[in-house]
Amino acid sequence: MKAVVCEKVGEPWKVVDNLPTPEPSPDQILVKSIYTAINPADWMMASMGVLVQDWPLVAGLDAAGVVVKVGENAASSFKVGDHVCGCTRLGAPGYSAGQEYFLMDANVTIPKPSNVTLVEAATIGVGALTSALGLFGGLDVKLPELQDVKDDKEETLAEPGEWAVVLGGASSVGKFGSQILKACGYKVIASCSAKSVALVKQSVDAVFDYNKPVEEQVKEVLSVTKGNIHRVYDAAATGIEFASALFKELPNGPKLFATTNSWSGITDFEGATTNLIQLAAIGRPDAEQLNNQLASYIPVLVAMFEKKKLLPSPYDLIGEGGFECAIEALNYQKTGAGGANKVVVKIQDE
User: Fold this and answer.
1) CATH number of the domain within which 44 lies
2) Residue 287 in domain
3) Are residues 100 and 49 in the same domain?
4) Do 136 and 273 belong to one domain?
5) Cα–Cα distance measured from residue 322 to residue 224, given in angstroms and rounded to the nearest whole number
6) Which residues form the Enoyl reductase (ER) domain (predicted)?
């Protein structure tokens, strides 16, 4: 089986044709990889070895493909021919989308929303699932009722006029976080650079410049929100200084902070409750609580996409397709050439 691999820490990506085709367990599906999106974590694992359970490491966390084999227990959820997407198990042999066929754990696999193309679906998994964990699991945002979303019922899950802050609003994770908050009835103010203002404004109520001094950022946020704010979603993994300064100015009511910075051991501060988003354990047998959380969020997320409350991320599609193009896409993403867009590559034809 062909794949794009890093043989050991620090080595370059290369194409091989010697990997065994994995076999799904009763609770898994085998997926033919069609598209994958490149993530910073691909490079982090390859260059530092973190989260890698065994070598060689295969690229591709954000997956989109077609089901070719279904485990006995997974047959209640999926069938051969279904289009699926999501986030694969990180660093585990047999699970990455940068190979011809890969495993997915059925309970945390996203059925492709009906109004989303397969290439668009490759932009969904990591960003949408990370945001769902950070908001529903970390910031005490109430999960909408599935039927209410399907019925297009206007959600009033936030208090009237209540705001939430999203740090890193131009990132994929930040954009999904902003959209979910809006769908749940919150007003959203997001940080971004000056060049991303027009993009970010499409999905939020207000923006502020993260390149300004923190004191100015906090002053602007307080002015816009009138202090009616209790939740900070740190999609950029760099928001502790801002959140600390903001919470100092908010003496009353709950203070909630969720961050994608799961590695530095941030604890509660300034009277706020901190939640570290731990998507990296997705699918693993020892992460039952996480997997159950994600399984409860996925039907709601799919319904949000189908009702256009959530939109796939903008993307750059690299090359004409194939495994060599995947290496081109990895290098393109590393240089930052895509800007705020996801970097997507077609692995093979359907």
Assistant:
1) 3.90.180.10
2) no
3) yes
4) yes
5) 48
6) 10-345
* Claim to verify: residue 192 and residue 226 sit in the same structural domain: yes
Distance from chain centroid for Cα 198: 22
What average pLDDT does the segment 37-52 reach? 95
The per-residue pLDDT for 155 is 67
Identify whether the C-beta of residue 237 lies closer than 8 Å to the C-beta of residue 191: no
Within-domain flag for 157: yes
CA–CA dist 326, 122 (Å, integer)? 14
Would the pLDDT of 207 be above 90?
A: yes
The reply to whether 170 falls in a domain is: yes
Cα 240 to Cα 53, 272, 337, 341: the distances in Å are 30, 11, 27, 25
- Report which of 315, 332, 313 is spatially closest to residue 131, judged by C-alpha positions: 313
Question: Considering only CA atoms, which of 339, 321, 341 is closest in space to residue 36?
Answer: 321
Mean pLDDT in residue range 184-199 = 94
206 and 337 belong to one structural domain:
no
pLDDT of residue 159: 86
Ramachandran angles phi, psi of 198, nearest 5°: -60, -40
Segments forming the whole domain that contains residue 7: 3-123+312-346
Q: Report yes or no on 155 lying in a domain.
A: yes
Burial of 226 (0-12, 13-18, 19+ CB in 10 A): exposed
DSSP state, residue 135: I
Specify the number of domains making up the chain.
Answer: 2
pLDDT tens digits, one per residue of 113-135 = 999 999 999 999 999 999 999 99
